[in-house]
Write a structure and sequence with these properties.
It contains two helices and eight strands. It has 140 residues and is an alpha+beta fold. The strands form two sheets. Strands 2, 3, 5, 6 and 7 form a five-stranded antiparallel beta sheet that branches. Strands 4-1-8 form a three-stranded mixed beta sheet, with no helix packed on it. The N terminus is likely disordered.
Length: 140
C-alpha cells in the first residue's frame, strides 16, 4: 500500500512539474495564407537579433501546405524581441535556394510583412513578446 501511495505521489508531482514547465513563456501562432503550390513544406524560424539572418533559429518548425496555407505554433517563447522568417521549401532540401546572382528561387516572408529589395532587415521584422499570446500572418 505504501508503494502505491508513493507511486501516485510521484506521478502527481511529475504532472505538476510538467504543467509548470509548459507555461514558461507565450505561444506564437503563425499562418501563411498564400503559398503558391502544395509541393514541399514551409519552414519557419524564430530568431533573436543575434541569430536573425546569421545563424540557426532559436526555434524552428515545418508545416505541410493545405489549401495554399501553412500554419505553425512556437511555444514557451520568453519575453524579449524576436523576428520570424519562413520560406517555401519546394524541393525538400531544408534550405533556401538561390540563383547564381543571389536572388532567392523560393518564396519567403518575414514578420511584419515588410519586404523591400535586398535581404530582410532586423529592424523591420522585429516584434516584442511580453505576456500575451501572439498571432501573425506572413505573406510570401
Amino acid at each position: 500500500m505504501k508503494t502505491l501511495a508513493v507511486l501516485i505521489a510521484i506521478l502527481i508531482s511529475n504532472f505538476i512539474a510538467q504543467a509548470q514547465e509548459e507555461n514558461k513563456g507565450i505561444t506564437i501562432t503563425v499562418m501563411v495564407p498564400n503559398v503558391t503550390s502544395s509541393e514541399g513544406e514551409v519552414i519557419f524560424g524564430l530568431y533573436d537579433e543575434d541569430t536573425f539572418m546569421k545563424a540557426a533559429p532559436i526555434q524552428g518548425q515545418k508545416s505541410k501546405i493545405i489549401d495554399g496555407k501553412a500554419k505553425i505554433t512556437f511555444i514557451n517563447v520568453p519575453e524579449g524581441t524576436f523576428a520570424i522568417s519562413c520560406f517555401h521549401d519546394k524541393n525538400g532540401n531544408n534550405s533556401m535556394d538561390f540563383e547564381d546572382n543571389g536572388m532567392p528561387k523560393e518564396n519567403y516572408g518575414v514578420s511584419n510583412n515588410n519586404l523591400s529589395y535586398g535581404p530582410p532587415m532586423w529592424g523591420e521584422a522585429k516584434f516584442e513578446v511580453s505576456t500575451e499570446d501572439l498571432n501573425f500572418e506572413i505573406k510570401m
